[in-house]
Specification:
By secondary structure, the protein is an alpha+beta fold. It folds into 4 domains: 3-74, no CATH class; 95-307 and 343-401, Rossmann fold (3-Layer(aba) Sandwich); 312-339, no CATH class; 410-477. It has helices spanning 3-22, 155-167, 184-206, 225-235, 308-316, 321-331, 349-358, 385-401, and strands at 26-30, 33-39, 45-51, 59-63, 73-74, 95-108, 118-129, 136-142, 170-174, 213-223, 267-271, 288-293, 303-304, 346-347, 363-368, 410-412, 419-422, 427-435, 437-442, 446-451, 459-466, 471-477. The strands form 5 sheets. The chain has an 8-stranded mixed β-sheet with strand order 6-7-9-8-10-11-12-15, with helices on both faces. A 5-stranded antiparallel β-sheet has the order 4-3-2-1-5, with no helix packed on it. Strands 16-17-20-19 form a 4-stranded antiparallel β-sheet, with no helix packed on it. The longest helix has 23 residues, at 184-206. 33% of the residues are buried.
Amino acid sequence: MSLRRLIVLGALAALALSCSRTAEPGVYTVQGGFVRVFVDSLGNTKALMYRDTSGVWADTSTVDLKSEKLALKPYEAPEFRLFPAKELYREPVYRVGESQDIIYGRVVRNDSYDEDERMDLTMDVYVPEDGGQVARPLLVTFHGGAFKGGDMRDSLLVEWCRYFASLGYVAASVDYRQGYRRNVRSTDDAMYRALKDANAAVRFLLKRDSLLIHSERIFAAGADAGGILALNLAYMREENLPEIIQEEEDTTIVLHQSLLRGFDVRGVANLWGAIADTAILHNAKIPVISFQSREDPVIAYGAGYPFEALKEEEDGRDAMDELRRIFESIVSIFIPEEDRHPFREMYGAGVIHRVLKRYGVTSELHVFPGARHNLFIGEDGLADYPVYDEIKDQTAAFFASKMVVAPVSLRQDPEDPQLFVIDNSEVETCLWDVQGGVLLGKGDDAVRVLFFPDAPEHKVSVSGVYISGLTFYETVEL
């Protein structure tokens, strides 16, 4: 053995002896386990040895530090701290950048018989600035207009998108094909084409890497026809499409013939919209928040044909209304059901909420008094900002609460009691802490723990950050 090696070994032995005689209170690692040094009530320094028994509780024995020459090495617990709770996606914190008239597809117009007569599909995109390289949620918003008109640059819609971008979303106001003839076949086609455009818009946005969109945090919102579109974007599947829909050679650049989803929607804000088939609500478990007047004259809160209430009001003002109704009832006998109304019977927020609840899906319903359709507009025809802000804030809170699908849950493995795990693929960072014991090892989603039987408390805690930026803290106490 070389002289140099003898010197090193001698130094280590001296250090071990020194440590064993002058150990400060604390936990130390030794061969075969751990030693806890403490001062008892009489001021005497004592030490206990804890050996790993492959169970959650250690085997304990007393150690005499003066007689036993133990090489004590201070146990280093991993870093642990509580991440500050963040009100992300609930309060405006970012400046907003805007890009207008972004073309996401080119299609044949709904009212054209010439396949060479095409139109551009466009959107406006609003992004949070100074948000760093953080994956952002996406909110696609669709304007109303009964699939006949409407404007993606309506002032309240622009303000809506700017608000959500200031919360941290990439917010897009999406235009889509409109127009139809007055029969169910044509209005079904219009809805289907708009739905294909909506799907195309989302996929277009997901392919723009510069937007930093998180593909698992896609939200949809819409008013009136836009609400119908947002609900169908989340829940409609091709097998549920009405049989009378005519397939056309659609040439949407990023879409082609089918819906080809390729993504999932995490939450929907239904602003006085509806659906034509409640069966589609069984396709997924996507949370929905709905807003509607119970006496909505355009789209029934329960079930009914769109605009039927308005038609009845107009008939009621005509002195010949009774004769007209008799005539129409006779003529309707000879008219197929699908041709009697320009729209299918639709189911509003009241029915949607009830069916979702029956399916065990999160649904939040806000019912407003009065007989008005667009809740953003007051009876005087001007913007009703108190209601507008209320709906905007409630939607933001609802979406923020759904940013994490399955919140972290910390549990002890029943087959391996030393193992404490979290089951969550949405965690970006987590820190672990043990009170009344030590960590034997840790990974990204689990730790192995040894508890000291005589410790005053036994607790495992985990603190961390989700990919979305939200924080969490969970603890298990034995």
